[in-house]
Amino acid sequence: MKTIASFLILLFCVATSFAWGPTGHRAVGLVAEKHLSAKAKKNLAKILGQQSLAEVSTWMDDIRSDSVYNYTADWHWVTIETGKTYDQSPKNPKGDVIATLEKIIGELKKHTLDKKTETEYLKMLVHLVGDIHMPLHVGCCDDQGGNKVKVKWFRNDTNLHHVWDSDMIDDTKLSYTELAGFLGEPDATTRAQWQKNTVREWAGESMALRTQVYAVGDGNLGYKYSYKNIGSVKQRLQQAGIRLAGILNMIYGG
After folding, report:
1. Which helix (H) or strand (E) holds 158?
2. What is the SS3 assignment for 159?
């Protein structure tokens, strides 16, 4: 039986980390918007008003500065040890991204929430679907999702988490609208398959990228690392957007 100390070592603390930066999250929201049914768009407008999915996609990071929402701090991530499943891994008593997504989706499907709660759950859903697709938000170790892995990005000091959440994306010099447009369009069969996958399967996909994510060599990262990984970054953003649309169409387009 694991001691409390060893359990805490496994927890991936993200008090100062984010998943995708604003550009990535907004791109996910825009991709989702492009794949919404007409009915889903109409029903979402009743909840969000003039706000787009891209606009609300960063809300859950924005509220980190509001102590009222401190209880959501651990909802952005999950720890699953390599070689184990979510069920086999120790659980954070404060919650995690898998448990939260499963709960939120289940509650939204009931259509029984009050307006304030539904609005907040919807904003959380948009954000957390993006989070779980960022490989380092499905943590495995005691390195705080790569935050403790100190590297250089084109000779500038940073950490591995930041390389994945922002550096590779920001170095494309694309706006979120340009980035979303450059992600391409998967065929109908691929879209359908992606939307069939479960939340836990999304986490498994992030885990499957660990070897390439942590292949940092001497820690001096730049063109070569980006060349090897930017395709995975773009695919994860695209998958997140397509899957978010699928969930929203199911809940609000039926």
Report:
1. strand 156-159
2. strand
Closest CA to 137 of 71, 206, 67, 227: 206
Domain residue spans of the chain: 4-148+176-209+238-252
Residues 250 and 242: their CA atoms lie apart, in Å, by: 12
Alpha helices per DSSP H over the chain = 4-10, 22-34, 38-48, 53-56, 59-62, 97-110, 115-132, 160-162, 168-170, 176-182, 188-196, 199-208, 210-213, 223-252
DSSP output for 113-137: S-HHHHHHHHHHHHHHHHHHTSGGG
CA–CA distance, 87 with 57 (Å, rounded to integer): 28
pLDDT at 243: 98
- Report CA-CA distances (Å) from 31 to 85, 155, 234: 29, 33, 12
Can you identify the CATH homologous superfamily of domain 4-148+176-209+238-252?
Answer: P1 Nuclease (1.10.575.10)
Mean pLDDT by 10 residues, the chain (254 residues): 39 54 97 98 97 98 95 96 93 97 98 98 98 96 90 97 96 97 96 98 97 97 98 98 98 94
Please tell me the distance from the alpha carbon of residue 114 to that of residue 153, in angstroms, as a whole number: 46
Contact 41, 67 (CB under 8 A): no
Q: Tokens at residue 148, please?
A: 């403790």
CA-nearest of 126, 109, 108 to 117 is: 108
